[in-house]
Amino acid sequence: MDTVDRYIDAVWAERGLSAATLDAYRRDLQALQRWLDENGRNPADRATTADLLAWLAWRGEQGASTRTLARQLSSLRQFYRWLLRHSLREDNPCESIDAPRLSRHLPGSLSEDDMERLLQAPDVTTAFGLRDRAMLELMYGSGLRVSELVNLLLSQINLGAGLLRLTGKGARERIIPLGELASEWLERYLHQGRPQLLRAGVVSDAVFLSVRGRAMTRQAFWQHLKKYLARAGISTAFTPHSLRHAFATHLLNHGADLRSLQMLLGHSDLSTTQIYTHIAQARLQELHRRHHPRG
């Protein structure tokens, strides 16, 4: 087993990282190793600062974004810290490499009026429409990540208490409120819609079922969402994650504090949550410009 594989196995056991995060670490380190091999340089576990700088410069020349380079440098730092900690090398070649400066990206969001039109778009006279309305209400009402939404299990819902139990990034568990309207639509879907989506011979504990009676995929949810955006006449640049942004932004606009928002979103670092204050501030500035006589 090579050093990269040993490292991936070790961090999986030590830190309980998600499969997606482990795959990203592995891809970054394997990409580095391929480049080092092709250019006759040291293997990854013995790479020098010059080796790493040359690889990052090459990645930039190939068109890698600043954000991608920063993420890959972060992967390298984790790897070399692990090598140091386990006495597999005596120095950290990343120590003197500065991360590229990232421009602060403000995620797209919808106005409250746009959000209301989107929620009204599904045809709730059908089982699929009930499912989709419940999904939209739940994501907007509770700020779920798309992966948390499509992977939600019946055992994670407590309708009586109005709560969800979620396991987010880094296997961190959080309990969040459903919200009154989300609870109502979810209960209606579970009693009227979901039974119609069950399929003979298919056993699934997933809350939101596809036409085959199994859990929906992220891609399927995105396709449905695009249909409802068009039906609602919304042309704003939008992704499924924008529903989570709308949840956070609208809470802040109505007086929520950052610490509470951090807990609801499941952010480990408050600085991640603080980006939403910029969105709220931009919204206030726009309102002032449009409506104040001296705006």
Structure keywords:
295 residues; 3-stranded antiparallel β-sheet; 58% helix; 2 domains; hpI Integrase, Chain A; mainly alpha; DNA polymerase, domain 1
Explain the overall architecture.
This protein has 295 residues and is mainly α. It folds into two domains: 3-85, Tyrosine recombinase, N-terminal domain (DNA polymerase, domain 1); 112-291, hpI Integrase, Chain A. Helix content is 58%, strand content 4%. It has 13 helices and three strands. Strand 1 and strand 2 form a beta hairpin. The mean pLDDT is 82.
What is the domain total for the residues? 2
Q: Which CATH first-tier class of the largest domain would you pick?
A: Mainly Alpha
- Distance from N terminus to C terminus (CA atoms, Å) equals 65 Å
Based on secondary structure, the structural category is mainly alpha
Record the strand order, biggest sheet. Answer: 1-2-3
Form type: elongated
Report the helical percentage: 55-70%
Helices, strands, pairings?
Elements: H1 3-15, H2 19-38, H3 49-61, H4 66-85, H5 112-120, H6 127-142, H7 146-150, E1 157-158, E2 163-167, E3 173-177, H8 180-197, H9 218-231, H10 241-253, H11 258-265, H12 270-273, H13 275-291
Antiparallel strand pairs: 1-2, 2-3
